[in-house]
Amino acid sequence: MAINWYKFASPASFYPLAGRLVPWFWILAAVLIVIGLYLGFVVAPTDYKQGEAYRIMFIHVPAAWMSMFIYIVMAIYAGLALVLKTRLSTMMATALAPTGAMFTFVALWTGAFWGKPMWGAWWVWDARLTSELILLFLYIGYMSLYAAIDDPRRAARASGLLAIVGAVNVPIIYFSVKWWNTLHQGASISFGQAPTMAATMLAAMGIMALGFWMYTIAVVLMRVRCEILERERHSDWVQEMVSRGTYG
Amino acid sequence: MAEFLDMGGYGFYIWGSYLVTGVLMVLEVILVRRRRSQLKRRLDRMGRMQSHEEETRLDHEIET
Amino acid sequence: MKSRHKRLALVAVGLVGLGVATTLVLRAFNSNLVFFFSPTQVAAKESPQGRSFRLGGLVEQGSLKRDDNGLTVHFVVTDTSVNIPVTFTGILPDLFREGQGVVAQGKLSPDGVFMADEVLAKHDEKYMPPEVADALEKAKDVNAQMSGTSLAKSGTEGKP
User: Fold this and answer.
1) Chains with ≥3 Cβ pairs under 8 A against A?
2) Cβ neighbours around A206 below 10 Å, total
3) Which of A42, B29, C19, C96 has its CA 20 to 30 A from that of A241?
4) Closest Cα to residue A28, out of A209, A226, A240, A232?
5) Are C56 and C103 in contact (CB under 8 A)?
6) Residue A100 CB: number of other CB atoms within 10 A?
7) DSSP letters along A43-82, please?
8) DSSP H or E segment with residue A22
9) pTM score over 0.95
10) pLDDT over 90 for what percent of chain B?
11) A148–C contact, CB cutoff 8 A
């Protein structure tokens, strides 16, 4: 290993690295989302059954994927924080939560706007929708628990435990459409199976998902930089930046 | 254009989804940027107070 | 020493919490979140008796009839082995079509007709342009003529 990864586990060296990476992820996110929208609204054909309404899928599915993926990454960071007691891990976990909650809300909202015209209902209490709603509560619970406890180390421990316990909900969301009778349809894309979707629709959805992913990295890196500055404000390297008046 | 916005009668649902998603994503970025600028201001204030304390301490040391 | 005990206790509490949360969620899903019952389950009296439940299946081809008032509809929900007649008064969702999935909420009347007060459309996970759908449909018809057997099955493919 030529790169010493442990070096970047220290907030002092991660802070400037994150700062250099942010613009690149913004460019990637913007380009991918613009291409995704073009494919989704101009290239992708009208669906044979749902007409134009299915185009909500191009944000609904990527948002739902991100809501689950971000939770898993957040739980891994929370676990690392508990086991290795690295400061940066907790900061990453807390920086991920608001974006995860935002995408969970987007998945629910766009789902309602898709369900009303297609199914005939904004909301139903089926297993897929209910477990995704529980995910939103888990994000909110994690953030409020972390904010409620004054001592940062105790806050990290308690909320980290909640994040890890809550991770059991993610496979439940994913497999709910297989395990139970749901109104929500099954997955169009799954491992070891050809996708049940026209190629251009699939491309639009995939590129949107990549765009959302890059957006997430960009905004989370920005947030973790705030987190680092706040938590480390008494450390020498932050003090040095303060005395110079520049924050990288 | 009007036909595009109508989306085969589903315009309300499609644009209702995309608009809210876009607004939330932009809003999140604005909030993070605001948090950073507020933090900078606070750190600047902290820095000025410290240098002020240091000056008075130095003055004090020189005087005695 | 004390802090280690504390930490152990915390982890234990966390694990117990995990177990309890999992069982609760799974139990809740199994008892209350079986979203709908199939006609076969209803025929076997597995659905709740005497109270409202959801019936899910496919709308049988050619079974949809409208009353003269235009609002009350009659159709048959099938899972290809058991058929249940349904009566509903109200507006049907856009995706409600013969041969498509449907979930109806209501009660079973003594004469075996399901009186629905809400009808939702259930669609599958397939998305394609109309031309492709037409081509697939034609290919299926050709296959059906060649073998002459698969017609009855054609409706069930959409189920995930």
Assistant:
1) B, C
2) 18
3) B29
4) A209
5) yes
6) 26
7) ISPPBTTTBGGGGGHHHHHHHHHHHHHHHHHHHHHHHHHH
8) helix A11-38
9) no
10) 55
11) no
Q: Which amino acid is at A50?
A: Q
Q: Which of A46, A52, A223 sits opposite B14 (nearest CB)?
A: A52
Q: What is the pLDDT of residue C132?
A: 82
Q: At what angle do helices B11-63 and A57-84 cross, to 10 degrees?
A: 30
Q: Which residues does B contribute to its contact with A (CB < 8 Å)?
A: 4, 7-10, 13-14, 16-18, 20-21, 24-25, 28-29, 32-33, 35-36, 39-40, 43-44, 46-47, 50-51
Residue type (1 letter), A9: A
Residue A101 contacts B, CB cutoff 8 Å:
no
Q: How many CA atoms lie within 13 A of A225 on its CB side?
A: 23
CATH number for the segment(s) A21-43+52-232:
1.20.120
Q: Chain A 52-81, CB below 8 Å of chain B: which residues?
A: 52-53, 55-56, 59-60, 63
- Domain C39-122 fold: OB fold (Dihydrolipoamide Acetyltransferase, E2P) (2.40.50)
